Amino acid sequence: MQFTKLKTGLAVLTLFVLTSCATSPTGRSQLKLYSNAQLTNMGVQAFDGMKSQQKVSTKRVENEFVSCVANHLTRQVPQKIFAGQWELVVFEDDQVNAFALPGGKIGVYTGLLNVAENQDQLAAVIGHEIGHVIAEHGNERMSNSALIGFGMDVTNQLLKNNQIANSNMIMAAIGLGVQVGVQLPFSRTHESESDLIGLSLMAKAGFEPQGAIDLWQNMDKASGGKRQAEFMSTHPSPQTRISMLQSNLADARAIAAKASTKPNCKK
Fold this sequence. Notes:
The structure is a single chain. The protein is mainly α. Helices cover about 60% and strands about 5% of the residues. It has 9 helices and 5 strands, in the order αββααβββαααααα. It has helices at about 1-20, 35-55, 60-75, 120-135, 135-160, 165-205, 210-225, 240-245, 250-255, and strands at about 20-25, 30, 85-90, 100, 105-110. The protein has a 3-stranded mixed beta sheet with strand order 3-5-4. A two-stranded antiparallel ribbon has the order 1-2. The chain is globular, with a radius of gyration of 21 Å. The protein starts with a helix and ends in a 10-residue tail after the last helix.
């Protein structure tokens, strides 16, 4: 009876997965189980929570600079992704980071402005983060996590039902295998895809694409060599990113040459 229930659950899940497949902007197959409305609601709630918990910068020059860069980029985002007014907040924090969320939300930490030396380098970071939203990576990650969780539960139940020895050790090994073999490379794929989307986005907005390469060279220096081996990291190494960006630089520059605007955002 228990095994029949498991087979029925798997059949339902398989049908759900087959009807939830999509394609990313770079042509990669994706699994997306959540609706745009659900993702937007999550993004708005998360952003509101951050604004209430973290210090927001009130420095006029910082805010105007970041807003200028972000505004040029968001004008290039397809309306089907988000058709409303984007909200940008600069958070007073030393971490070198930024993010974008479904529902038109962008956050930039002041620590990033110490590494992103000019408008083009900042555009590379914000463009990359918007790239995650355009490609709906949040939806994909949550969907795959849900699928992996279900698969692990089923495997665990089958091991116990068949009284297989050391089932806990086997499940632990499977968990590590999923992390290293599936989830980490999956995250690196998202990062690389967002690098390409961001490069195209900043080029369309009229920024100099070389800024993306310069930015990651700065990031590499700022890290001081303190990085995990790439196969154990959720992000590609700076050198991997730089090589990929360099191989796409000529195409991006051709796009930038045709841009109708040339940003002039002062830091």
